């Protein structure tokens, strides 16, 4: 059997029937819009019933009214401009979009979803997202609402998911953020994959709450107890989703404690710990408190975020710097030791990190805030005499704000790591933490690795450092 389709001719013939001015052939009058934006359209019931699941129900006896042997149907929530495009699609299978306005495309998308034209939804979503690509911040809150309210908008849902994971600032720092629904904001704060500092989430939440209770225009020095109580009530649904343990003590003291009357009931353990701790210890304090804190995806760290975890994963597998994505990077980084929490004495480092297999060390430099570190594929251990470790799979690094410009330095000698009881992580002369309390000193010069990772003096003070067990998932 030979079959040949001539669909363009079929489309043309149906469009001719639609454009026919002989009113006697039409048996449906569809009243679209209302008041100043109103228009009546005539159509053939057999075409509507054949092409649309929606109209099979809408034109049933239970719904439709008849007048002069014609079915009368009223649809006030669709504009005439949009319905004309839909009607041409019903008759001819053609979608004609002659506007650059994203709002018009969005209206068409929502109407097509309501009328159950699922076959064109993906196409219209792509068109809409293309129209807003240069003004995402103006539409992002609306787009998030669409992804939740319309389960069939799969492309928009994927787009929102990407924004949340990789560019959350578009949402949290957008001019429409204060208009975000409470339920959606809770859903965002519950997620483990938002790549934004916890203190920034807190700042944004505060602004959102102050806007809702009309305190955003007042300086906190002008507040009275009633104002603090209003904020407290607004914060209540969110407070358990803010991970205060991921904040520095300074951030917590400067940005959370001023709102103490509004938050003390919820985070009393933290506040108590601060006020019963000496100033020197408080500087290096890492919070552990009774409020349950869910862990965000990637890494329990005060120093590096998930984007930097992805970069390090690429280095581990000797891939290009952007080879992995959030959903594909194949490592877990499990915190073993944090100097500001566990103490800077190297004996504690060895107690917590020796014989744990491959580890990642991340160091924040005092004064410059440089982020440097190294990877050791071997066990750390603490012999009484200096012992070299033989490996060419170690590396040291410096992470820059522009990740592509970060420095990766691989070994040029086989004995690229070393161990001794009175040293911390030791990547030969290129990066070695030495003993110290309450701080550690670090030695860094170009010796056994192919690139220097610092250009300044050889010895410096470590503000904090963390060591992670590296586990391939």
Give the overall silhouette: elongated
Task: Kindly estimate the percentage of residues that lie in beta strands according to DSSP.
Answer: 15-25%
Helix count? 19
Assembly annotation: single chain
Mean of the pLDDT scores? 85
Helix content: 25-40%
The main sheet comes to:
9 strands, antiparallel
User: Which regions are unreliable across 5 or more consecutive residues at pLDDT < 50?
Assistant: 278-292
Distance between the termini: 54 Å
Radius of gyration, whole Å: 31 Å
- Structural class computed from helices and strand pairing: alpha+beta
Structurally, how many domains make up the residues?
3
Number of strands: 15
Domain BTB: 26-99
Protein name: BTB/POZ domain-containing protein
Domain TLDc: 302-471
Which helices and strands appear, and what pairs or packs with what?
Layout: H1 7-19, E1 28-34, E2 37-43, H2 45-51, H3 53-58, E3 65-67, E4 70-75, H4 80-92, H5 102-114, H6 121-131, H7 136-149, H8 154-166, H9 169-172, H10 182-190, H11 198-212, H12 225-235, H13 249-256, H14 260-263, H15 268-275, H16 279-283, H17 306-316, E5 331-338, H18 339-342, H19 346-353, E6 359-365, E7 371-376, E8 387-389, E9 395-399, E10 407-409, E11 417-419, E12 423-426, E13 432-434, E14 440-443, E15 459-472
Parallel strand pairs: 1-4
Antiparallel strand pairs: 1-2, 3-4, 5-15, 6-7, 6-15, 7-9, 8-11, 9-10, 12-13, 13-14, 14-15
Helix pairs in contact: 4-5, 5-6, 7-8
Domain BTB: 26-99
Organism: Glomus cerebriforme
Domain TLDc: 302-471
Task: Give a structural overview.
With 473 residues, this protein is of the alpha+beta class. It has 3 domains: 7-159, Potassium Channel Kv1.1, Chain A, CATH 3.30.710; 197-283, no CATH class; 306-472, no CATH class. Helices cover 37% and strands 18% of the residues. It is built from 19 helices and 15 strands. The chain has helices at residues 7-19, 45-51, 53-58, 80-92, 102-114, 121-131, 136-149, 154-166, 169-172, 182-190, 198-212, 225-235, 249-256, 260-263, 268-275, 279-283, 306-316, 339-342, 346-353; strands spanning 28-34, 37-43, 65-67, 70-75, 331-338, 359-365, 371-376, 387-389, 395-399, 407-409, 417-419, 423-426, 432-434, 440-443, 459-472. Strands 5, 6, 7, 9, 10, 12, 13, 14 and 15 form a 9-stranded antiparallel β-sheet that branches. Strand 3 (65-67) and strand 4 form a beta hairpin. Helix 7 crosses helix 8. The longest helix has 15 residues, at 198-212. The radius of gyration is 31 Å and the shape is elongated.
